[in-house]
């Protein structure tokens, strides 16, 4: 069975690091970026099937919404799970408009993350 | 979780009847900082639980960095004067109502203190040990408690 690729984009390096470690153990090939531009470079080269993107990245030249928009320009079928805060409802609307697959709210725990990643795997498998 | 304040019910009732609110920007600030720190602690703990291994001392020290940051944010948003508040755009909304300040310092403060205590006690330089799965579960219970409290108070202050 094809090993799926997962890209984790978050400006908190600890979140990137441990999400990658967790999903590497679950059989994914993982990539990480702490800003949107690096994420797009990785996306262009590796084409990960599932992308987990934090919306609010104040230290990134582009935020998560713009990262999603550009990723969808590269491949309209990119599966993107957006991570946001409950206080960012307007951004969720923007993500919906650009075709995000799902939304998760921080603070996150592994059960919520697993559920979204499994749904994304299912989406990839069924097209 | 942090022990409920003895007058918790009354405090939530006062938030409702006195229409005590917290500026959305302040919530945004809290969710951004505390949300990232709690997420990072949750994932670190989940990783070692999934490996069925204790958290090594070096990794456990990262938890203390996150809890220190949470404490710092709570200290800032609960300042009694806006003079030293480091986020100028929200200075007009500081100080928060005393009830809100008390609740933040009690609930988040106690849970963070407990996490700190459990980790520091385990990795104490005199007899350092990795953090066991039993302690990891207790840490996760505290992070869940912080998350639940934040959401409960956010809802209470946004509908009041």
Descriptors:
heterodimer; A: 127 residues; alpha/beta; five-stranded parallel sheet; 5 helices; B: 160 residues; mainly alpha
Provide structural commentary.
The complex is a heterodimer of chains A (127) and B (160). Chain A has 127 residues and is of the alpha/beta class. Helices cover 48% and strands 21% of the residues of chain A. Chain A contains five helices and five strands; from the N terminus they run βαβαβαβαβα. A five-stranded parallel sheet of chain A has the order 2-1-3-4-5, sandwiched between helices. Chain B is an all-alpha fold and 160 residues long. The model of chain B has no long low-confidence stretch (mean pLDDT 90). The chains are: A alpha/beta (127), B mainly alpha (160). At the A-B interface, helix 1 of A face helix 2 and helix 5 of B.
Q: Average pLDDT value of chain B?
A: 90
Structural class of chain A: alpha/beta
Our estimate of the beta-strand percent of chain B is: under 5%
The amount of beta strand of chain A, in percent, is 15-25%
Shape descriptor of chain B: elongated
Would you count the extended β strands of chain A for me? 5
Using the alpha-carbon principal axes, give the shape of chain A.
globular
Largest sheet: spatial strand order of chain A: 2-1-3-4-5
Oligomerization state: heterodimer
Largest interface: A-B, 20 and 28 residues
Structural class of chain B: mainly alpha
In which range does the helix fraction of chain A lie? 40-55%
Low-confidence parts of chain A, pLDDT < 50 over ≥5 residues? none
The major sheet of chain B is characterized as: none
Order of helices and strands of chain B: HHHHH
């Amino acid at each position: 069975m094809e090993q799926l690729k997962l890209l984790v984009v978050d400006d908190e390096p600890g979140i990137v690091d441990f999400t990658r470690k967790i999903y590497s153990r679950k059989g994914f090939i993982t990539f990480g970026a702490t800003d949107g531009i690096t994420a797009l470079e990785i996306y262009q080269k590796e084409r990960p099937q599932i992308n987990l993107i934090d919306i609010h990245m104040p230290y990134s030249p582009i935020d998560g919404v713009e990262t999603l928009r550009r990723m969808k320009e590269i491949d309209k079928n990119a599966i993107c799970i957006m991570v946001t805060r409950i206080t960012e409802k307007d951004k969720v609307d923007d993500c919906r408009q650009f075709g995000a697959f799902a939304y998760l709210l921080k603070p996150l725990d592994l059960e919520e993350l697993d559920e979204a990643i499994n749904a994304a795997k299912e989406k990839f498998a069924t097209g | 979780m942090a022990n409920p304040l003895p007058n918790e019910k009354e405090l939530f009732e006062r938030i409702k009847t006195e229409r005590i609110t917290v500026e959305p920007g302040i919530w945004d600030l809290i969710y951004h900082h505390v949300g990232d720190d709690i997420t990072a602690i949750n994932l670190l703990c989940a990783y070692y639980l999934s490996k069925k291994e204790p958290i090594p001392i070096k990794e456990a020290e990262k938890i203390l960095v996150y809890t220190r940051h949470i404490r710092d944010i709570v200290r800032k948003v609960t300042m009694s004067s806006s003079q030293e508040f480091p986020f100028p755009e929200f200075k007009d909304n500081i100080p928060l109502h005393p009830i809100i300040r008390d609740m933040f310092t009690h609930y988040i403060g106690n849970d963070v203190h407990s996490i700190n205590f459990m980790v520091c006690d385990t990795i104490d330089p005199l007899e350092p040990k990795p953090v066991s799965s039993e302690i990891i579960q207790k840490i996760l219970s505290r992070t869940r408690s912080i998350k639940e409290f934040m959401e409960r108070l956010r809802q209470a202050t946004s509908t009041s």
